[in-house]
Amino acid sequence: MALVNLESVWKSYKKGRDRVEVLNDISFRVNSREFVALMGPSGSGKTTMLNLIGGLDRPTSGVVTVNDVVLNSLSSGKLARWRSESIGFVFQFYNLLPVFSARQNVELPLLLTKLSRKQRKKNAALALDIVGLSDRARHTPARLSGGQQQRVAIARAIVADPKILVCDEPTGDLDRSTATEILRLLQILNQEHDKTIIMVTHDPKAAEYAKRTMLLDKGKLVSSLLQSEVGAEVET
Amino acid sequence: MTTFGFLIKSMFRRKLLVTLSMLSLTTAFLLFILLRSVAVLFSGDFASVSDVHMQTASKYAIILLLPHRYGEEIAAVEGVRAITFASWFGGVFKEGDDSAMTFAVDPSTYFEVHENYQISSEHLDAFLELRTAAVAPEAIMERYDLEVGQKVPVTSSIFPNINGEPWTFDLVGTYSSENEVEADYLPFLFHYEYLKEATGVSDVGWYTFTIEDPEKASEIAHIIDSKFENTADATKTMTESEAMKNWMSQIGDIGLMMNGIIGAVFFTMLLLTANTMIHSYRQRIPDLAVLKTLGFSNNKVAGFMLFESLLFCTTSAAVGIGIATLALNGIGPFLPTGFVLAVTGPTLIWGTSIALGLGLVIGLVPAISANRLVIVNALHTK
Fold first, then answer.
1. Which of A231, B184, B271, B380 has its CA 20 to 30 A from that of A103?
2. CATH, domain A33-57+83-235, list 1.10.10.60, 1.10.1270.20, 3.40.50.300, 3.20.20.190
C-alpha cells in the first residue's frame, strides 16, 4: 500500500527573471515500510523532492499525498502539525540546537505533544537508548562526535514515533565506518521498528542499504530499481 | 524540559552578550526610576493638598514677608472660613545638616485650618500654654532622635538668635497627618509670638485659610490680590496645591529636564537592545528553521521571539526597579526633611509600560522575520 504518492509533480523556482525547473512531472509511490534511496547528480532535484515529501515545501503543480493526507491542501499551521506527528527528519549536518543537551534536543518535538514532562523525558531517554547513546544524554552537541550527533538527530527524528523518516545525506559528513553504523541503524529502524525511510544520498554504498533506489536526473525520474535489480544492472 | 525552560535556555545561548545587554537595560530602568522620582518630587503631584485650602503669599517671592494686618482683611473676605499664618524659619537641628522645615505659627488657629493634621488635646493644650513650646511630626522626631519633654536647640540663618546662641524650644508634643504621604513633609512648629518678641519682626511669611466653596477659589483669590495690588506688599493667592507647584517651579522645570534625560536614555537603549535582538535572531536562523521543521508553527516560532524580547525587557525592568527602590530607601534618611523620594504607583505603571512597549517594539522585527522564515532556505544558513 502506497504511503507516499507523488502525482505529476512539478516544482520550479524564480531565480531573478528566470524560472528554474527543478522537478519535471514526477510521479512515484513509496510503500509502507520501504527503505528508498534517492540518488542523482547535484541539482537533479533530490533534496527538493525530499522537502516536498516532508511538507517543508509545496509543489508548483501536482499532488503530494503522504499517509492519505494531501499536503498541497494543508494550511501552513496544519502542515506544521502534520510534520510534528508524521515525519522525522535527519539532515547531513545534524542540525542539533547547540545549547541543549542530547536529551533536550531529542525532547524538542515532544514539546508539541500533550505528554507530561516526565513522559517526555522518558520517551527521549528511550529514543536515545535505541540509537545507543544513553550514556551521552547530558552532553551538548559540541561534546559529541559527528557520528554521535547524527545518532542524536536520528533519536530526535523517531522520538514522536512517526511512520516516515526523510534523511537528506545522513552520512555525507561522516567517515566510512561511522557512516556504516548510521546506515545500519537506519536499516534496523526500517526492519525492526517499521519505519518507512526515504534517503537522499550521493553514495552508492549507502544506497545499498535501501530496498529500492530511485535515480533522478535533471528533475526527472530516470529509474526506480529494487536492490537486486541494481546489482544486476551494474553487472550488465 | 518545559517550553519555558526551553525559551530561557535559548535566550541565554550567548550568556555574556545577553547578560551585559540585560545589565545595560537594567541600568536604564534604574536611572528611569531615580529620575522619575526626582521629577515627581518637583512636580508637586505627590503632595496631598486640598483645593479647599488657599494660601496668600508675597507676589514676588515666598521669602518676602507680609504685614500682619493682612490676616484680618483676608478673614473678612466673603467665603473665607478660617485663617492662620506661618513664617519660614529654616531651622537647623544638627550642626552641618541642611535646614529642616520649621515654621513659626499661631497654635490657636494653625490646627483649626489644617484640620487634616492630628494632635492630641493634651499636646495642643501644652503647645498653647507655653511660649517656647514646639510640636514636631514623627519624621523629624525620628530623624533627630527627639523625645517629648526635651529641650530642642535649633539654629536659623534667617532668624539668628540675638544672643548668638541656638534657639531653644520645649518639645511638648507631636502631631501627624491623616495622609501618609503628607506625613513625611510636615514641619516642626513653634510659637510665632516667641519669634516676634525675640526678633521684633511682626510680619508673617504667608497666610493659609480655608474657604467654604472650592469652586469660588479663583474669585476669592482675585478679591484678595486686588485688595493689596497697589501696595508695596502685593500678594499672590492660590489654592494650596497650586502654591506647592508654584514653589517647586521656582527651582526650574525639573520634570522636563528629567523626562528629557529619560527619553535620551531609553532611545539609546532601544537602539542597542534592538541591535542585540536582531543580531541574536540572525544567529539563530538555522535553529528556528529546525524548530519549524520539527513542527513548530510560524506563529509559535514568532511568539518565541516576541516572548524572549518581552522577557528580556521585563526582567531587566524588574531588576532595575528593585534596585532603584532599595536605593531610594537607602538615600531617604540623608535627604532634607520634607523631601521624600519614593517609587510612586504611576512611576511603576510607567516603568512596566515602557518595559512591555520596549519588548514589543524590539521583538516585533525578529518575530515577523521568524514567522516568514522559509524553512528550506533557512536550514542551510550559516
1. B380
2. 3.40.50.300
